[in-house]
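TICKET: design request
STATUS: open
ATTACHED STRUCTURE:
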């Protein structure tokens, strides 16, 4: 299971880095212009499709984080929720899965003792 934790950890880092490699230069060029951001994000049908897909995925993920995190007792489950809201599903999902793996190891360890 150690490999899976590293896998989720690397994906969490990539989940921050890759999206922000595009977003930071855009912010540098345009500033925090929310109107322009929304206009460019919905410029055509395929852009709108992608953003709506991400929006639905984010809502589902936040629901999953809250429910599953509470069910198995994950501490700090608010961190992947904040990650989802500030970066996206690309950070929130692998970060939550990492926390879930850590919690599952704790549960397995407690059952052995």
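STATUS: resolved
RESOLUTION: sequence designed for all positions
ATTACHED SEQUENCE:
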């Amino acid at each position: 299971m150690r490999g899976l934790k590293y896998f989720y950890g690397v994906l969490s880092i990539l989940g921050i880095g890759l999206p922000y490699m595009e977003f930071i230069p855009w912010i540098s060029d345009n500033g925090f212009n929310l109107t322009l951001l929304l206009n460019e994000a919905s410029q055509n049908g395929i852009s709108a499709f992608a953003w709506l897909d991400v929006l639905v995925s984010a809502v589902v993920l936040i629901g999953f984080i809250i429910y599953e995190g509470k069910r198995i007792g994950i501490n700090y489950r608010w961190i992947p929720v904040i990650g989802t809201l500030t970066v996206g599903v690309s950070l929130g999902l692998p970060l939550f899965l990492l926390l879930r793996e850590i919690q599952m190891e704790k549960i397995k360890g407690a059952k052995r003792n």
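CLOSING REMARK: The mean pLDDT is 93. The CA atoms of residues 6 and 112 lie 23 Å apart.
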